[in-house]
Amino acid sequence: MNIIIKNFLVQAAITSIALGQFCEHQWEGKFADHEVDGVPYLQARQDVAPPPLEIRPLIVNGPSSNRVDLIFFGDGYTEDEKDKFFDDALFLANNITDGQTFFDVLPVLNFWAGFSPSKENSLLTSEKSGVGTGGKPLDVTTASPNNGPVIIRHELGHSIIGVGEEYDGGEVYTGVNAAKSIDSVPWKQWYTDASKEPKIQRTNMPIQAYPWTLLNTSQSWSQTFTSAGTYSTHLLQVSVSGVTATSDLLVEIDGKDAGWEWNPAVGEDRYIYNIKRDEALAPGEHEIKFTLLNEERQGSAQLCSFEVLEYGDEEEFNFEPRYHGLYPTFSYKNVTSYRPTNDLCLMRDTYSANFCDACIEGLWLSLLGRLKLIDNITQEAQPDGSTNATLNLLPLAKLRQVPNPHEEAYTILWYGADGTTVLKDWTNSTTALLGPDTTEFGVEVRFWTEQVRVDSAGVLVQKERYSVE
Ligand SMILES: *[C@@H]1O[C@H](CO)[C@@H](O)[C@H](O)[C@H]1NC(C)=O
Ligand SMILES: *[C@@H]1O[C@H](CO)[C@@H](O)[C@H](O)[C@H]1NC(C)=O
Ligand SMILES: *[C@@H]1O[C@H](CO)[C@@H](O)[C@H](O)[C@H]1NC(C)=O
Ligand SMILES: *[C@@H]1O[C@H](CO)[C@@H](O)[C@H](O)[C@H]1NC(C)=O
Ligand SMILES: *[C@@H]1O[C@H](CO)[C@@H](O)[C@H](O)[C@H]1NC(C)=O
Ligand SMILES: *[C@@H]1O[C@H](CO)[C@@H](O)[C@H](O)[C@H]1NC(C)=O
C-alpha cells in the first residue's frame, strides 16, 4: 500500500573515504521553489523527458499493494556498471535481512533496485566527500562497502521506525527508544527487571568533541577535560579515518598509551573505536592526545570525533548487552535523555546488526500500521451451494517460508451472519466452508509475536465483514 522510497549510492573500490558522522549532515537546501519567466520552475520544465529508469526485483515477498516497498536507487553508476549496481543493491538487501536486522519483518517487505545511468562516475572524482545523510525520504550516500550496510540499516531505523539517535552527541532523541525523563519511558514493557526500575544507570560524559581535523607529525592534537573522580571505569571512544596501521597513530590519556589499535577490516574508512579502560579517572584535569606517527599518512589521517564516558561500579551500571533499563544518553548540548540498552541497539552502536527490543517492537508497529493482515480473500462456490472462503494473509507465523527464532501465531475467528457467533469449526483455519444459506460472514485475524508487548493502536488485529459473492 505504502511505498517508501529509499535512495542510496554504493561504489566499491574507492580509497580514502572520510565518512561523515552518519546523521550529522541533513541536507536542507531548497530545490525547485523558484520561477522561470513567472512560471514555477518544475512546471516550466514539464516537457523534459524523464530519465530512463529500470526497476528490478531484489527480494519480493508479496503484492506491492500490501507490502512496504523499499527501492534502492543508484547514483554515480555508468551504463557499463549496471550489473554491478544490481549486484551491489542485492548485496545490501541481503546483508540487512539475512538472519539479522530486518530478518523478522522481511515477509512484509519488498526490496527493489532502480537503475538510471550516470554519465560519469561522479564518486571517483570526489574521493573524500563520502558522507551519510539522513532524512525523509531517506537519502543515504555512501561510497564505502564496509560502511554501506552499517549506514543503510541505521538510516532505515530512523525512517521506518521513526526514532532518533541513541548515540551521544546527536541532536534528535525521540520515538520509542527515547525518554526525556524517567516519568515518560515508552519501553517500560521491556524492562529486564521491572522491580528495579526506574533506576538510572550511573554514567557521565566528561568530554565530547568533533574536531574533524587532519593530523600531522609535527604537532600532536590534544585537549583537556575534568573528571569528578567518582566513577569506577571509563571508555574512550575515538573515530578516525585515513589510517592503515596501529603504528600510524598514538592515542594517549595523561601521557599513557590508551591502547588504540587499527581495525584492518575497515581499511582507510572512518571507524568508531571503543576502548574500554577498567580503571577510574582520578579527580581533576586530564589530557587526551592524538599523535600521528607515520608521515606518509599526513593529508589522509583525520581525527573525526572522540568522547569519554565514565561508569559507576557493577551495582551502579549494568553492562549486560541485553539488559533493558534506563541508560543516559548525552546530546551535543550535553542534555541528558534515556535509552533502553547500553549498546545493543544499532541506533546507538551503528556497527551492531541488531535493534533493541523497543526498536523491534516499534518496527513491527510501524510496518503493520501501514498494512493489512489480510492480503485478500477468495470465495469459491461449491457444487452443493456452499462457499469456500480462503484467506491470504501476510506470510507470518506458521505461514513464513523461512522460520524466524521468535514465537509468533495467528488467531483466526470466522463469524456467521449475526456477527457474533463464532463458526468454531474453522477457528485458526485460513479457509472456511460456509453453508448454502449464508449471505454474509465475518473474519477476525489477530497476529501475535513475542516481539510486540504493547499495541495500543491495534495494528495487530484486523476485523472484516464480507458478503457471499
Ligand atoms: C554484511 O556486510 C558486512 C560488511 O561488508 C560483512 O562483514 C557481514 O558479514 C555481512 N553480513 C551478512 C549477513 O551478509
Ligand atoms: C556534561 O554535564 C555533566 C554534568 O553536569 C558534566 O559533569 C560533564 O562534564 C558535561 N560534559 C560535557 C562534555 O560538557
Ligand atoms: C599540525 O597539527 C596541529 C594540531 O592539529 C595544528 O595546530 C597545526 O596547524 C598543524 N600543522 C600543520 C603544518 O598543518
Ligand atoms: C491474494 O494475495 C496473494 C498473496 O497473499 C497473492 O499471491 C494473490 O495474487 C492475491 N490474489 C488476488 C486476487 O489479488
Ligand atoms: C488458535 O490459535 C491461537 C494462537 O496459536 C491459540 O492460542 C488458540 O488456542 C487456538 N484456538 C484453537 C481453538 O485452537
Ligand atoms: C477451499 O479451497 C482451498 C483451495 O482452493 C483448499 O485448500 C481448502 O481445503 C478448501 N477449504 C475447505 C474448507 O474445503
UniProtKB/TrEMBL annotation:
Any one GO molecular-function label of the UniProt entry: metallopeptidase activity
Annotated region described as Disordered, given as residue ranges: 123-143
One Pfam family from the record: Peptidase_M64
Keywords, ordered alphabetically: Signal
Leader sequence segment: 1-20
Signal as UniProt keyword: yes
The UniProt record lists the keyword Signal: yes
Record protein name field: IgA peptidase M64-domain-containing protein
Organism placement in taxonomy: Eukaryota, Fungi, Dikarya, Ascomycota, Pezizomycotina
